[in-house]
Model the fold of this input.
Amino acid sequence: MIREEHTGTIEIHRARPGVSLCVEVQDEECARVLPLPEVVVLVGSSPRAALRLRDRAVSGVHLELRVEGGLVHVVDCGSKNGTFVGGARVRDVVAGPGTVITLGRSTLVIREQLGEVCVAHASEPLPGVVGGSALMRRVAARVRALAAMRLPVLITGESGTGKELVARALHTESSRARGPFVPLNVTCMPRELVESELFGHERGSFTGAVARRRGAFLEADGGTLFLDEIGDLPPEAQPKLLRALDGYGVRSVGASGAASQPDVRVVAATHAALAERVVEGAFRRDLYHRLEVFTLHLPPLRDRPGDLAPMAKALLRQAEAEVGPDKALTSAALARLVAHPWPGNVRELRNVLLRAAALAEDEVVDAAHVDQAIGRQPAPVAKSAMTPSVAKALLQEHAGNLSAAARAAGCPRTTFRKLLAR
Done:
């Protein structure tokens, strides 16, 4: 059943003058970015399709894309499993940059072409990190460039974006891969034991110190020390961490001898704006500048919708013990995931998938299960796309004035007229 919804005026942002369009493709095999020429491009799983997808849930000729005036006309070609935009199944839409099209278990993201577009990205995805989108490929390239160095790296990004996974990949890609990777979450350490956790302590140095402890710096000797949520490091411990980073060595609590000189690379992470904490006086400026020699920012999940399909597949596979084997999303279910903003990023995605899979009585996880798991009504058509029904509603709102309705839609007059004709 074809479903088209109208929830009010929809703003479509066309490509800027002189800027070409491209499409970011993620199917069951790989991710790539391809230019969109101003001709009809057939998309499907058969050799007839100019844009061929490796996806058994995609029809032989599934849909067609046609660039017109900085926008993309998307027409479903009678596909079996449907074409989805913004969580709704559609037959005919006009889409602008930012639109995500879901078909089968694949996604197409319309984007402006910024810089060189290539068929295959130069940098492969990181080990242990799921996501082949253009944004994550750039992160992968940056990680591999930084892996050759010993200097500190500060990883920033919202909570749940996978900062520890990227830190592990940075360690794995470096010459320190055979050494230890020691993760330490600053927020989980009791305030009075922060120095002991970082630098170790001698037996009897404080109440409860019944045995000598090496500390994270010495445990990470020859490898990488990962300090998660570094913004929560207590002020009294900050100067000692700065001294260790400046090469003066580490001395355990209660020790009286010479400082040790472990060979450690420090990678720190934070979801907080450290620069703001420096201004507030909660974080030392000199320590901040010592940590942010190189900064690596992880994009939130909502900015890389093409990664949702492979990420969902991997998370369902990891959760087989809880939800059962062979759980798979339908095209509509994947479209619902794509339409969600994911404020909790990957952690929220995992929870939603667990709930949705538990609701499914068999192996098929459908849109209704995802909607119930998220706790919302089915999503409307995306704001970056327009259906014929929306075009007709806009024409009525503008008293039949075709030019005014086309301007409100952000469509060329000829494209708007074609939508009305359909």
